[in-house]
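Reopening: EF-hand domain-containing protein still failing for me.
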Amino acid sequence: METGKLNQTPAKKHGATTMEDVLVALHETKEERDLRIRRLFEFFDSSKLGFLDDTHIEKGLTSLRIPPKYKYARDLLRVCDSNRDGRVDYEEFRRYMDAKELELYIIFQAIDVERNDDICPDELSQALVKSGIEIEDKELASFMEHVDKDKNGTITFQEWRDFLLLHPHEATVENIYHHWERVCLIDIGEQPVIPDGISKHAQRSKLLLAGGLAGAVSRTATAPLDRLKVVLQVQRTKSGVVPTIKKIWREDKLLGFFRGNGLNVTKVAPESAIKFAAYEMLKPIIGGGDGEIGTKGRLLAGGLAGAVAQTAIYPMDLVKTRLQTCVSELGKTPNLLKLTKEIWVQEGPRAFYKGLYPSLLGIIPYAGIDLAAYETLKDFSRTYFHHDEPGPLVQLGCGMTSGALGASCVYPLQVVRTRMQADSAKTSMSQEFLKTLKGEGVRGFYRGIFPNLFKVIPSASISYLVYEAMKKNLALD
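Support: Ran it again with your exact input. Result attached.
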């Protein structure tokens, strides 16, 4: 920034930002702004009905070349439609414009650290980095070029407003970046194209560390429920939760409830790292050059990445199951190395992959059910409780509910997998399935499901709280 320009920087305003500040920044009078908003409403109200519905909004957004697949029309309708009658009249539209322009000016001021009423590339880059997003110079230049309509190298508030006015989600730096990355189109003649930049987390290793620690704490806190679930899964005779708890206590006391947790925690980091790396590799393959893979693509990429990660760490999972299900000898916990060696010598290296097939078969259905339920619950929340994106606690609740539903649907595969892992005899997935069905009926496939479901709420809550605390301590917010 030039020194002369810095000397012209106005003093920082004190007090809450008001619409008067917005008018000053836009160099508009109240009457001029009223006329502009009225004309924008009339642009959407092409049928001259005096109100907007989702068809009007979608048609208007399409005219502005915002792809319908991003569902901005539906979200914009929800945000504007304060009386929930499925229509947006001018007053509702006006209230949205007032709130949105004020919100955009507040974040504009936050990014404009020099307080010279424009955003330069360095300021935009710093704001993105603080939000955990690192972009290359070429991508930053494309961002600036798209928003900077007068091509003077900086972004004024009017340009900022025009770029984001119809973006119905909360105006955070991350949301704004992804709005540009995913939706806003770069003009090349008559054909718009999606920007080819792909966001990169500047502190990916820290994010992995935060997620790994959150997973470790969560798994340790819910280890007793996990041990109880596994023991119940392998039992072929009718046995309740309370007798099983007494049995575990009788054999190993308190530590018995944490048997196998060391392995469970150890596999968090490699599993997450492998899954993340595989997902990043699969995204361009599935989505092509633009890096956009959509919901189905994310489901496929996530499922395949999960399969790769699970296959890589599966031997650890099998040893954990054996450790949790074998009987203590004279009150002593089985030795991990001795147990691993026995599996290798007596059953061969292939034994470490017993039950892999049912495990892999459950990945895509689980992810699909989880995602569908999560999106449905979020839509329900937006429709009946929130005007905009639900907050983190609501999203956490949606995630716990959808996760529990997904886990319940694929639970029979999990039971078959656990039984194959625990059995030293050679058995196939179909043999184990038929054996369970004939001997125990359908109920046999749901042994241990209640401890599994009881894990969901504390596990998700602890993971969320620890992850957020780690993000704060590692300066990832």
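Residues 200-474 form a domain with the Mitochondrial carrier fold fold (CATH 1.50.40.10). If you still see a failure, please send the error message rather than a screenshot.
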